[in-house]
């Protein structure tokens, strides 16, 4: 028996040729030439025609628009700084997208050249299209949506950020005046000028207190009610749950308006029909402290039904075997709640509960509808119950102070993003997602 016959026959390595990937990449500086060098004729012609058409048609408008964004106009009679800023930002977004496509053109030429250099057969146009459809289907779906998001979401965000670095306010408003870039002057004013710094820190501190108090209370109340109703000894569970979610079924703006009338200092039902029997009249709308207490109470009423429904669904999914095993081991009600109920609920609902904090941080409706951010506070340009989002609204639509509104919006976005990212990173569900 020939032992050598059992040895594997070495496979012949691909025949390498002199095809140069570097040359293909350099030629692709003119879109399509690299593909033509790689003998991808149809792809090369398509890239060449589309690339040159875009370069010829868009190069000058994009350059002019970006230049106008930098200067923000030279003559107030003919230039509108807002239009120049919008055109410049839009051109920048389109330019970045086109630059990304241009880089993909270079990488595509280099990749095809490497395959030809290694002797790998270049697929036909039909085969290449089928392979791209099968392996790159997620990109075909995601990329158009990303482009739309860039134009619809990112573009307004960039416009808002840009306004924070200009002097756009009621007294310097286009088209009568041209805007100027002022750098970080608006942010400096927020933290150094007495009126702005006092307003900022007061509103920011109340926003944090409001978010933590209102959201935590509604979660605790919902958790307590869900656990109580889920108890096996409670009868008429469906009726009780239906009644408890009724505040969620009524439109929130209607509920807030009704509560506003009930909390009125003079003719409100709470003072007139309840506290009047004790000789007490609470200034719910005119006193800052009582106005804040009223708003927190209203938000707890409005917010707990959603959390109650969420936790109820999780509780019904917990296996009874866990509790039976705990009974066998002599576990108390508190231990069963601590080691079975709470971990299951928090693991399933933590991301949504965190989003409740983010929602209340920007909960404009209740603040504006209840008292429009009032009552006013001496020495501030913000109301006692104003949170950041309602203060931005007041600066924008009442005072036309667009530059400071944009600056506050940036601070607000940073706070929300940092808080949400930190909280999500600490949740067990977030950490375990990376393990799969």
TrEMBL record:
InterPro entries: MetI-like, MetI-like_sf. Residues 204-423 form the ABC transmembrane type-1 domain. Pfam families: BPD_transp_1. Keywords: Cell membrane, Membrane, Sugar transport, Transmembrane, Transmembrane helix, Transport. One of its GO terms (molecular function) is ABC-type maltose transporter activity. The chain crosses the membrane at residues 45-72, 84-107, 139-165, 203-227, 239-263, 293-318, 339-359, 404-422. CDD domains: TM_PBP2 (cd06261). It is a multi-pass membrane protein. It is found in: Cell membrane. One of its GO terms (biological process) is maltodextrin transmembrane transport. One of its GO terms (cellular component) is maltose transport complex. Part of the ABC transporter complex MalEFGK involved in maltose/maltodextrin import. Probably responsible for the translocation of the substrate across the membrane. PANTHER family: MALTOSE/MALTODEXTRIN TRANSPORT SYSTEM PERMEASE PROTEIN MALF (PTHR47314), MALTOSE_MALTODEXTRIN TRANSPORT SYSTEM PERMEASE PROTEIN MALF (PTHR47314:SF1). Belongs to the binding-protein-dependent transport system permease family. MalFG subfamily. This is Maltose/maltodextrin transport system permease protein.
